[in-house]
Amino acid sequence: MKAAVIIFPGSNCDRDMIQTIANHNGQQPELVWHADTKLPAGLDVIALPGGFSYGDYLRSGAMAARSPIMQEVIAAAKRGVYILGVCNGFQILTESGLLPGALIRNQNLKFVCKSVSLKAANTDTIFTSGYHQDTSITIPVAHHDGNYFADDETLHELEQEDRIAFYYDKENPNGSADNIAGIFDTNKRILGMMPHPERACDKATGSTDGAALFDSLFH
Hints:
The protein is of the alpha/beta class. Helix content is 22%, strand content 26%. The chain has one domain: Rossmann fold (3-Layer(aba) Sandwich).
């Protein structure tokens, strides 16, 4: 599959994402700068990495969502290209309207950086087919604005349409509504999640539980 990673000013997890995709896809992803106005042709997957795009000014992801390249990302999503947004990438997806809801300040008003337990809520997607439903996995988080918020109607729709990808298990590190750690769009071709699966693909990092996501996506 042909993949691309979008890089914004302030991205700091782009190298992790690039290397993880290369390891699981067998080829290097294309690198696309935020100010570019065109995406490489023939993309199957676009990844929006974590970090602090534009210094998280205004709201996390708000300025990045208005970068020139995001119009092309939105158009690619409409064509059915798979989109993965992790941490700041999830924030950008909500700010650009590709996913519902918003990521707001952590409930304890502190930056959270640690490994957390998750459970896959829907394993019938290209992103999550490598997981067993409701089996606990360990993935790290690192964010200050990871508290997922949506109105009651949206939360009900996400649950009824099986669009919740991951729940926080045992501990909710940020106060997210309904313990939500990641969600899909209506077609389940876009995944946004706050935890960092690309940081849990090597034994040296303490967990390989993120590898199943990339194996699912690229095989």
